[in-house]
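User:
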Amino acid sequence: MSYSLFKITLHKQKLNKKNKPSNKSQCNLWIRSFSIIIAFSILASIGGSVRADYFPAAPPPGNVAKETVISLSQTTPSNTVYIDVTEYDTQQVVRSITIKFLEPVTYISFFIDILKDKPFVANAVSAIPIQYYSIRFDSELADKITDITIVFAVEKAVCLNKNVEERTLSQYQYVDSKFEMCPTEKIGEDDTFLYYQTETKTSPYFAIAGPTAFTISWSALVILVVIALATGSYIYRRRKATHSKNPVKA
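Assistant: Predicted structure:
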């Protein structure tokens, strides 16, 4: 009886020893886990693929006519980044963007949303609107932006149809619940488009707009001519009458 009990106990001890992981196996497992953690840490620190982009809320889909996604990685960090938007979308209103940052960056990501109408959260721009749009930068990136230079295009036919004065066309940015005019200048034109350059800051919405062009109808022109002739005739007769009453003595 005691011999049998001894055999059973010895057999259990052998099984436990066989199933118990060795110190060497535990060490290898710890090294593999630590290596994975280190690898992910290095990728995150150098801005590799292990990153997440966070953007402001997009405009309601029903008010978006077109969306252009732009993402750019640079091997050399830079404080100023020029982006030719037409390389991503040849029909974009925004043709190019130059962005200045507080510190050198290697990664740029943003959306350009062309809107069908004014943003639902904003009042209409004070001038005649040509186009509303938004630029949504990666939230981490937006905090580093100091200045933005935008070159945009407007069709000549649109200005003509909306009776907008092309020489005073401007871009407006949405600030403090209202649209404010940005410094804007015309830099060129071709057979179809007018090209403008504007300086701005980060803003949830933008508007391209301008004042009404001064036009005069033929009927109004005829009335003005008649008034001018009548006024001139009246002044001439008054002077002639005065001269008759007071002739100049020789």
